[in-house]
Every structure is written in structure tokens, then in C-alpha cells.
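SAMPLE LOG
Freezer: B-3
Tube label: C17
Construct: single chain, 171 aa
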Amino acid sequence: AKQLAAALAADPAAPQAESWRADLRRLHRRWALSFYTLAREGAGDPLAASPVLGGGQSGAMLAWRPNPLGKVPVAVFGRFTAAAGTRTAIDRETAEAALGVRVEPLKSVPVAVDVERRFALGTMSRNAWSARLSGGGSQMVSLASLPFQLDGWGEAGIVGFHARPDYYAGA
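STRUCTURE (predicted):
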């Protein structure tokens, strides 16, 4: 951010100046809103710890960073998730909300640690504390002179620290 600000101060009319201004705004952004939908055929595994596992699901998250350029990025977030229903857009019985904190402890490694309190909105959800470690990355590679983008992601965590903990992971 300091280097972008210095470049703008040195040459505010540079051809890249508008791009630098946009990058600076993005770096200082405190609020982030994201949505996702995983569309999968069929329902989740009925024997899984959650009906969301193995089936489609949708979710949304609103996050706020008190200091976007802090040495250790921290965000406070609220989120909503639900499994895909068989006849409706979402299965209301699996709906849950959560409030939590995300810390990204290592700048050089794309890893986040989340601790959150989940609130059951449906009969198949739980009221419980959870903790999760997640991370991933992306790399452009060439295979037979063709460019490919490789993406990887994983997470591991626990839901419920006292009674009947559920473990989960994904990739």
C-alpha cells in the first residue's frame, strides 16, 4: 500500500494511476460480502455427520476487517449456510447461521483459522462452537504447451467441543 501511494504521489497522471488507485481502495476495504452455491446431483450422504456433506449447498458470508493492513489479518464475520433441498432451492431443516472470528496468522502461507459460534435455524443443524483450519492456493502451469490453472483447497475442523463432536474435512 505504501509503494502504491508513493507511486501515485510521484506521478498521479501515470498511465497505470487509475489501476493503482483501485488497488489501494481494495487493500483498504474493510467489508467483504461473498456468496456461493455448490450444485451437485443427488442429496448428501444420509450417514454423514451433516446432510450438507456430499450434496449441494449454498451460503453467504459478511466479513469486517478492523485493520485491513494489519500484520496479522483478522476478520469478524457472520454467515448463513444450508443444504440443497430436493424440491426447493434450500433445505430449511439444514439451515444454520454463525458468528465468528477469522485470523490469517502467516502472511507467506494462505492459511486461516476460524473460531465461530453456530446457531441452528433448522432441525438438522446444531448450536455449537466450532474451530477450523483452512487454506489453499492457485498456480498456473504448462502441460504440453497448454496453460492450466491448478487450484487446491483443504480444511479440517471440529464442531462441538463437549458433546458429540463432529469432525469434517474437504478438498
